[in-house]
Write a structure and sequence with these properties.
five-stranded antiparallel beta sheet, 3 helices, about 35% strand
Length: about 170
């Protein structure tokens, strides 16, 4: 694993970001996105129809004492922040997976969530010279700074040296 002192932000704008710009130690935070009761219920009805996510009145007597967002909803919010701010849509090639996904605290209506991305490791692909692998620690933070979700993600990102011209 490469190690470097923490770098506060990327030095290259998202539209120009390639593998070489994901320097280990880079930390960036994006957001917030405020979660509404209507969004929690709509997501849950479509994808995670459990009473703690779909019924504000009945959820008061549940294990969390009120309505909470599905963990998958919180992960989807993180993905929105990642797609809009962290990964360039033209150079991001795929993700081979996520490790250590954890939902630490419930997300409730009115919570404002931000995502903190820390580049842990970046290495060129051994088999495909046009890309590299970037390992990122991702933390979804509530407005008070508490971590509500965390994970480690790998991304395949196109190298600048082999990228096709955009003209």
């Amino acid at each position: 694993m490469n190690s470097a002192p923490e770098t506060p932000e990327f030095t290259v704008p998202l539209a120009d970001r390639h593998f070489e710009d994901y320097v280990p130690g880079t930390v960036s935070t994006y957001g917030p996105i405020t979660v509404t009761e209507a969004e929690i219920v709509a997501f849950a009805r479509a994808f995670d129809p459990q009473q703690m996510h779909t019924d504000p009145a009945a959820s008061v007597d549940g294990p969390f004492g009120g309505l909470i967002a599905s963990g998958w909803h919180t992960t989807a919010i993180m993905m929105r922040l990642m797609a809009d701010n962290y990964l360039n849509q033209w150079t991001s090639l795929a993700s081979p997976g996520v490790d250590e996904l954890r939902w630490h605290l419930p997300v409730r209506p009115g919570d404002a969530l931000s995502a903190r991305f820390t580049v842990l490791d970046a290495r060129p692909s051994r088999t495909k010279p046009d890309r590299g692998l970037v390992r990122t620690r991702i933390e979804l933070l509530r407005q008070d700074g508490a971590v509500v979700m965390s994970q480690m993600m790998m991304n395949l990102i196109r190298s600048r040296s082999t990228a096709a011209p955009t003209d």
